């Protein structure tokens, strides 16, 4: 068999592996298969600039049509992979044929967790371009929306809906939803951001029922309150697309279990990348699965290197990074903020919409940073995160950026 790498999943993780294989000198065949029919597109704008109409679909392309052609990437769209035969080194397509591989990359990501409630008409999920297109059309014709889930995607949809002038309510069972990631002190600022933008929050209460239809939906809360909306957006997380692997014998547990080289457990030529991969992170000495864009990109480069250089494989030990845009806040988060034991806030007195939060772990070492509208502080603090340092070091760096009084 000629050397061939098959990549299942043509979103950011899969496409970046294909590109990195070529840029790192791989000369074998590269086949990318995706169940969607659209030319590969990027997802972060789906809740932001695509949803508000600033960016059109062709501006979301992850790779140009010319690059696909010039890099000899065999891109097969609109075909779902339904099985993996490890002994025969092949994947089976829904359309019938099997495709053999020398190396396989699993890049099948996540799908939105479905709404468990009764109503469906006017109830939206947001993961794909089709989801975003439908939501955009409905938002344009609506007067009010209830967003179920106060995480990043829910918050971004709320912000976009407000920019259209809709009445917006957000519900979440957690008292301080973003506190789960950034701690309660910073999380409360995010709640305040919703309020100052005219969004009503119903935090610390779950949803019992959603009934009705588009234009007339009722969201009954466990607190007893009932929220009315023309639309509902359900943003309650996402689940790994691993069903096609279940009978293969690969280890699946909240994602594809991989070793520190991003190889599927016990396999030498099957790799996981992006949101679907749950790999052993040598720095944390634990299995982790990360649902952020930058991780998919960085992991793709590592996987391509390891495919080309199996005897000199690199372990994958990234410092996590994510951004979010909500209202007029540009939010950037790096490192381990969720597990931190302490957090120090630094505010810029000359700009009330700018602050940084610096996190330390139990032993007092610096472990994470979050910034709002302060990219310079992020750049300076993020690069300190790959080595151990005292929290005073990033704090001094940020303080030095403040205007002198
Ligand atoms: C609305 C939205 C906003 C976001 N905003 C941000 C942000 O601001 N910052 C940030 O860091 N991250 C953000 N993210 C997360 C980021 O987009 C993801 O981390 C990234 O898309 C993960 O890429 P992936 O390639 O691993 O998986 P996915 O993007 O989930 O892609 C998986 C691909 O696999 C295909 N597939 C699945 N199963 C099969 C199969 N059996 N056969 C063939 N193809 C299959 C799917 O069609 C899909 O194209 C956002 C995500 C969403 C949905």
Question: What's the SSE blueprint?
Answer:
Blueprint: E1 4-8, H1 12-23, E2 29-34, H2 65-70, E3 73-77, E4 81-85, E5 90-93, E6 98-100, E7 103-106, E8 110-112, E9 123-124, H3 129-140, E10 144-148, H4 152-163, E11 167-172, H5 179-196, E12 200-203, E13 207-213, E14 216-221, E15 226-229, E16 231-234, E17 238-240, E18 256-258, E19 270-272, E20 277-281, E21 286-288, H6 293-308, E22 321-326, E23 329-335, E24 342-347, E25 355-360, E26 366-372, H7 375-382, H8 392-401
Parallel strand pairs: 1-2, 1-7, 2-3, 7-19, 9-16, 10-11, 10-16, 11-12, 18-20
Antiparallel strand pairs: 4-5, 5-6, 8-17, 13-14, 14-15, 20-21, 22-23, 23-26, 24-25, 25-26
Helix pairs in contact: 1-6, 7-8
Bound molecules: flavin-adenine dinucleotide.
Features:
405 residues, alpha/beta, FAD/NAD(P)-binding domain, Enolase-like, domain 1, 3 domains, five-stranded parallel beta sheet, 8 helices, 30% strand, binds flavin-adenine dinucleotide
Description:
This protein has 405 residues and is an alpha/beta fold. The chain folds into three domains: 4-111 and 239-312, FAD/NAD(P)-binding domain (3-Layer(bba) Sandwich), CATH 3.50.50.60; 114-234, 3-Layer(bba) Sandwich (FAD/NAD(P)-binding domain); 328-401, FAD/NAD-linked reductase, C-terminal dimerisation domain (Enolase-like, domain 1, 2-Layer Sandwich). The chain has eight helices and 26 strands. It has helices at residues 12-23, 65-70, 129-140, 152-163, 179-196, 293-308, 375-382, 392-401; strands at residues 4-8, 29-34, 73-77, 81-85, 90-93, 98-100, 103-106, 110-112, 123-124, 144-148, 167-172, 200-203, 207-213, 216-221, 226-229, 231-234, 238-240, 256-258, 270-272, 277-281, 286-288, 321-326, 329-335, 342-347, 355-360, 366-372. Strands 3-2-1-7-19 form a five-stranded parallel sheet. Strand 5 (90-93) and strand 6 (98-100) form a beta hairpin. The longest helix is centred in the middle third of the chain and has 18 residues, at 179-196. It starts with a strand and ends with a helix. The mean pLDDT is 97. The structure holds flavin-adenine dinucleotide (FAD). Flavin-adenine dinucleotide (FAD) binds at residues 8-14, 33-36, 43-44, 46-47, 80-81, 107-110, 126-127, 153, 241, 244, 274-276, 291-294, 296, 322-324.
């Amino acid at each position: 068999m000629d050397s061939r790498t098959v990549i299942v999943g043509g979103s950011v993780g899969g496409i970046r592996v294909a590109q990195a294989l070529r840029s790192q000198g791989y000369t074998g065949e590269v086949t990318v298969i995706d169940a969607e029919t659209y030319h590969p597109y990027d997802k972060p704008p789906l809740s932001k600039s695509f949803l508000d109409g600033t960016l059109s679909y062709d501006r979301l392309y992850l790779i140009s049509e010319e690059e696909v052609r010039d890099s000899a990437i065999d891109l097969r769209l609109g075909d779902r992979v339904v099985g993996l035969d490890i002994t025969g080194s092949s994947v089976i397509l829904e359309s019938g044929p099997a495709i053999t591989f020398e190396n396989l990359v699993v890049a099948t990501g996540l799908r939105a967790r479905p709404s468990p409630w009764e109503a469906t008409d006017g109830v939206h999920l947001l993961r794909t371009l089709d989801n975003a297109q439908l939501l955009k059309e409905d938002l344009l014709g609506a007067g009010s929306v209830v967003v179920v889930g106060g995480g990043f995607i829910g918050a971004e949809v709320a912000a976009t809906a407000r920019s259209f002038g809709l009445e917006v309510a957000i519900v979440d069972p957690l008292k301080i939803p973003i506190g789960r990631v950034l701690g309660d002190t910073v999380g409360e600022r995010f709640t305040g951001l919703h309020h100052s933008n005219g969004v009503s929050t119903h935090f610390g209460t779950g949803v019992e029922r959603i009934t009705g239809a588009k234009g007339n939906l009722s969201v009954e809360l466990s607190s007893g309150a009932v929220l009315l909306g023309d639309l509902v957006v359900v943003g309650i997380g996402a689940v790994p697309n691993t069903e096609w692997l279940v009978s293969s014998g690969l280890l699946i547990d909240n994602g594809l279990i991989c070793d520190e080289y991003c190889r599927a457990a016990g396999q030498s030529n099957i790799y996981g990348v992006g949101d679907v991969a749950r790999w052993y992170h040598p720095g944390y000495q634990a299995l982790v699965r990360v649902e952020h864009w930058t991780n998919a990109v960085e992991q793709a480069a590592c996987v391509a290197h390891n495919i080309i250089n199996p005897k000199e494989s690199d372990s994958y030990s990234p410092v996590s990074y994510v951004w979010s845009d909500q209202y007029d806040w540009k939010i950037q988060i790096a490192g381990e903020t969720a597990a931190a034991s302490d957090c120090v806030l630094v505010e810029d007195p000359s700009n009330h919409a700018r602050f940084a939060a610096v996190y330390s772990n139990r032993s007092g070492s610096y472990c994470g940073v979050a910034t709002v509208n302060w990219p310079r502080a992020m750049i300076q603090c993020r690069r300190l995160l790959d080595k151990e340092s005292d929290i005073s070091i990033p704090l001094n760096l940020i303080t030095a950026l403040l205007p002198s009084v």
